[in-house]
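Q: Convert this sequence to structure tokens.
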Amino acid sequence: MNELDYTQLKHRCDPNQFSFATTKELEPSATVFGQDRGVKAFDFGLQVKLRGYNIYMAGTSGTGKTTYAKASATKLALTESTPKDWCYVYNFKAPREPLALSFVAGDGSAFQKDMSELVALIKVEVKRAFADEDYHKQKSNINRMFEAKKEEFLEKMNQDAAEFDFLVKSQGGGVYFLPVVEGKPIGEEEYEELTDAEKERIEENSQGIQENVAGLLRDIKDLDRETKKQMERLEYKIGMLALGGPITEIQERYSAYPEAMTYLQELQEDVLEHLSFFYEEEESSEDDMTQLLPMMHKKPQEDITLNYRVNLLVDNSKTKGAPVVESYNPTAFHLAGEVEYDTEYGNLITDFMKIKGGLLHKANGGYLIVQAQDVLSNPLAWETLRRVIKTKEIQMDGMREQVGIAIAPTLKPQSIPVDVKVIMVGNNGYYELLREYDEEFDKFFKVKVDFDYEMPRTSENVEKICGFIKGFVERENTLDFDVSAICKVVEESSRLVERQNKMSTKLNYLVEILGESITWATIAGAEVVSKEHVERALFEKKERLCLYQEKLEELYDDDVILMDVSGSQVGQINGLAVLDLGNHAFGIPSRITATTCIGQSGIVNIEKEAQMSGQTHDKGVQIVAGYLGQTYAQEFPLSLSCRVCFEQNYNGIDGDSASSTELYCILSSLSKLPIRQDLAVTGSVNQKGEIQAIGGVTLKIEGFFDLCAKRGLTGTQGVLIPKANVRDLMLEDRVIDAVKEGKFHIYAISHLEEGIALLMGKDAGVLQEDGTYPKDTVHGMVLECLRKFYQVGTSN
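A:
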């Protein structure tokens, strides 16, 4: 019998190991520790600049993954070069395809400002140039030359027309002929009063004059075209003189950017094509009807200078090093940006200034931190992210169509090249889901970083927890912790992972305990946080969450759920389980019964038949069947029908931690030996009868202890646990005190036969050379019962 001493039930933290009294004497340490493997992998992933070496950080929530990722990436980013600024500008050749221009950090915002000033300067200079007296003088000269030449042509045309009794009239830039009768030009009414002979003569003369002056008319049109060209050349020359200085100055300033130089050249040509916009006066008034009916107003002339604006998409002028962007809402639009729309007269309109940058634009040249859950919960977010990672460029066209929003007109902005390292944070479940869902996931995220949920309980890590607590105290500017409080926090950290030689890395849980302990210390008016304040915080936290546990305990108290904690029963045993509600878990004892009879059905798991059994529990039952066959069915087959049941179980059961418990119960039913009800059992068994480790051992022991304590401790009550679980014990002091006083017992066993002796008060028995067991042993009694079952079964 291996009964545990009370000193084995918990790894206490000795306050004497510390050389300080309170955290006031300490310096703060890193906010993430105990993650040597993860930190090493993450730091390596940051250093690799090759394609596809994005990082997936896997681990339990609250272990500091995001905190470390942001802190480490920010530290490295400060040593790296600041990425480019990006702008979108109007595309004069293809207006629906805005151009993307890149600049050295800071030059993008400067370019935007310079362009704004350039447009204002152009408006002034062009208007001034075309208001200049020299321009009007040259324009007048061209007009005079045109009018003089035109008069010569018209005079010659009049002479030719007079020979055919016609008069030439010039009006509105056109030329037409009037017939002359008796020395006077006639109109349409007078023409109708003429005789047919006179009309015929006029028609003949009309044909003649048109053939005669056709060449002169062509000369007038050529003169008109030539004059127009001269005017355009004059305007172009004046415009060039006005634009030359400002354009040349800005071109010199941005001569290092070929794309910007090309854009400025095209902008200059566009200004020269639309010079009239800058110097012509707008109409000053409208007619009465349009004033009465505003909807009939003439559409205002389009302001072409709007096309000369600069949409500064990414401004890194104030960025130090590479950017580190963190997002908790990575929708498709937030990632890749979008083109926004306005409404005008019921229509949707847009332009290049409506292009809005996304997270990937901001993080370009640096690091983007996203949560796997956020990416997978947003439609098309993963598809958008993987497309950018795969193509290494951001394409904004078609985004709305992808999400089922059809909008016209659409823009197709020029794609922007991307060099960003994506850091995705999540658990292993999301990692496996992405690998299963996307066959190229491993190509995109070649570095997996595992953050452990536990760390060794070494003196070094204990010191780091002390520094962590000090850092929390400084950040929150609150009370310090003394060594007794720190010891309690360390012990709670070990209890959380159920290992005496480990501590939890779920630092957010520790932060909760620290914050609540400080609150209780403040309420008590203490000057420093001590052990009792931490204990109060843990107690009150449990009290807030244990409503369901209390309701369940009432059912035990009122004997609604039947449970014996004294006496002995055949085919009945107390098993142990853990009920996990997510934010609160606790141990609950459960009665397990077994009935046996002659038959061929073998072991029937009633929970399975009722579809209330999980796969692992089903496996445990099959292992029990294997043990029975291995131990008792070497000379004859089993003729056994056995029913095993978790009594009053309505929520289902899973896990194999009750397999040894079920086996004890079956052996009791077959041997007719009663099982002690003052002992509860947990432990998995293999087909060789070896007891294997299980989870939740601390909570299971406390669950049975609390039930026994309520009904009165007899001094014989206790729990059987696997020997392999001794290292996992972090029991509360109330249980440890009862064990110390001999009121409660905990037995650690490694083989089924040890449990048989404790539970049934009789040796299990050793297999003899003839293949039988001594009759006065448990194995002997079971074998004899099974032999009778076989003989009866075959005789019938």
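The radius of gyration is 47 Å.
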